[in-house]
Amino acid sequence: MTSVSVRVPAKVNLQLSVGPIRDDGYHDLVNVFHAVSLFDEVTAAPAAGLEVSVEAAPHSRVAIGGVPTDGGNLAARAARLVAGRLGVEPGVALRIRKAIPVAGGMAGGSADAAAALVACARLWDDRDRPVLTRDDLLELGAELGSDVPFALLGGTAIGVGRGERLTPALSRGTFHWVFATADGGLSTPAVYAECDRLREAGERPAAWPRVSEDLMTALATGDAKTLGAALVNDLQPAALALRPSLRRTLATGRDLGAVGAVVSGSGPTCAFLVANEEHAADLAADLDGAGVAEQIVVAAGPVPGATVL
Ligand code: ATP
């Protein structure tokens, strides 16, 4: 086989509820992940050793400066994990084309890891070896990070634990989104630390996280306005504290008619839900004109997870 290309979506969290900090330093989470049509592409080709190259996808203005091109890249770690499981040398050149913002709260690194798991498993698929099943890949994904299994699965799913134990959520129709990316990322650990600090300072103990029934009802009915009102992100106050300019971005999107406005995951990308495709194009143009974001991207969800092209 010469090469395998895999397309993988970004995610937005429809619900991100953060429980008390656990003894192992992680938080118990309730996450409702939603895969949207903003894709990275990872191509795996045979090579003497493990090589990584990273570029911005055509027409995308993703700043790829912070993405490692050594063994620290999550896609490279995924390749080594697959090679180890199959008992082969990790001889592969991984070419990553990024359209998902880096450190943007849309799980771009996890997406690339999921794509590399699928691409390498296919590249090294050989009749002499047992093939890796979807469950094997989900298990390897969970070893790499709590957002990786969802990037394999896609759609809309509820994640509990650290976010990695997934159940598909019942959802009707397509939702239309506009994403406003920011110049410079936010570190996920720094946002969790700020969330803990704000809670301690406010002496408000974290509640045990539970799946939002309002959100599940909104998804099942497919009504964007109801979904917009039910979006939850417990990390949003921390992201706003670390990046106060996001307040204006969110307010501008709301003023311009978004039916939902929320920081995506740990930020700094802001996600705006709109009623339909036409509204998405209008809001994108208006947000662009308002100058509150680095780049405006229109997308729809749910879409499938990592897919071989
Ligand atoms: P999440 O939403 O899961 O918290 P994020 O979208 O905020 O993640 P990522 O884009 O996944 O953040 O990247 C976070 C950091 O991971 C980057 O700053 C970079 O140093 C590192 N990294 C490793 N591999 C990759 C990759 N393939 N793509 C992007 N970043 C990567």
Automatic annotation (TrEMBL):
Record keyword ATP-binding present: yes
Catalyses which reaction(s): 4-CDP-2-C-methyl-D-erythritol + ATP = 4-CDP-2-C-methyl-D-erythritol 2-phosphate + ADP + H(+)
Q: Which UniProt keywords apply?
A: ATP-binding, Isoprene biosynthesis, Kinase, Nucleotide-binding, Transferase
Q: Part of which pathway?
A: Isoprenoid biosynthesis; isopentenyl diphosphate biosynthesis via DXP pathway; isopentenyl diphosphate from 1-deoxy-D-xylulose 5-phosphate: step 3/6
Q: What is the top-level taxon of the source organism?
A: Bacteria
Q: Which residues bind ATP?
A: 101-111
User: Per the database record, which ranges form the GHMP kinase N-terminal domain?
Assistant: 73-155
Could you give a single Gene Ontology term from the biological process aspect?
A: isopentenyl diphosphate biosynthetic process, methylerythritol 4-phosphate pathway
Give the Enzyme Commission number: 2.7.1.148
Q: Give the residues annotated as active site.
A: 11, 147
The UniProt entry's sequence similarity note says:
Belongs to the GHMP kinase family. IspE subfamily.
**Purpose of the protein:** Catalyzes the phosphorylation of the position 2 hydroxy group of 4-diphosphocytidyl-2C-methyl-D-erythritol.
Designated name of the protein: 4-diphosphocytidyl-2-C-methyl-D-erythritol kinase
Q: Which organism is it from?
A: Actinomadura rubrisoli
At the highest ranks, the source species' classification is: Bacteria, Bacillati, Actinomycetota, Actinomycetes, Streptosporangiales
Give the gene that encodes this protein: ispE
